[in-house]
Fold this sequence. Notes:
By secondary structure, the protein is an alpha+beta fold. The chain contains 15 helices and nine strands. The chain has a four-stranded mixed sheet with strand order 1-9-6-2.
Amino acid sequence: MKSETENEKEDLFKDVTIPCKTAREFLDNLDLTHPRWSRQHWVFRGQNDACWELVPSLFRKWNRGTNPGLELALIRLFISNANLAQLPIPNNSLGYFSSALKPTVRELNTGVSYDFSHVVFAIAQHSGVPTRLLDFSHSPLVAAYFAIDFASLYESLGLASDQLAQYFRRCADCYTDGDDVEATIAELVDKVKLSMDNLPDEVAVWAVQAQDLGDYTSIKLLEHPFMEILPLRMQKGLFLCDTDFAEEEVQQGQKWPSLDAKLATLIETDGIYKLTMPYVEAEALHDLLTLHQFSQTVVTPSYEAVAKQTVALAYEIFGQNRETS
Length: 325
């Protein structure tokens, strides 16, 4: 599915990649009782595409001319909108302003300093706001869940349910407007086919040894108390972030580097692994994770998710009863 250029790109983690052919093999290798995880303090991250680099969401679209104040502006707006929605942010939301001499403090050329280790950055990141934090979890099953959570990927490819609904409406409009329905359908089918050609060949779960991370790299692990933050609690979430970027050069137009090169130094200590699984095994993995009680209602809980699962399960149960009665 990928272009030759993408496939031929140097893979720094080739020697520590563990290819799994099936969903069952994938989960067996992620089982914390596996000898590979005999050392304590592994953290895990799931990614929809095994070819993706480890780049925080804020930096994926950071181009020349991007205002250095974008990160702080996003946090300020997030707090303001959370206030309008009457959603709490624990630990003093204004605490992200800081002049302390610690590695997570950043100073803009305007003289304003802020601290990206503050919990508001964690909440914003978990809620979909781009930040410099990279999501990880103590749980390999949570990482596996997010490896096959394709909502954002499908949206970027034009395959999200609302986007496909728009395609259908265009076709339906042809009947009332007298347009060529077959031509419109053919055009939309071509768009969908093109998007599907860009689906990943493999998904991945990364495993990083937290102790080695602190000993051998400038990448820090940020962990916040779970109890006041429901998403972090359910996902056993924590974050990785690099505290030694050449930010001045980046703010003048250079692209942010990925974390790959620095994390690759952990290969020598057996402190990093990359487990891959074919994309076509995603549905099978979803079923296995459901048996382990890792579903949307558990990992990203909401009343809406619980209601959706409740109705689906009820129709499944009573539908079967009606068929056998």
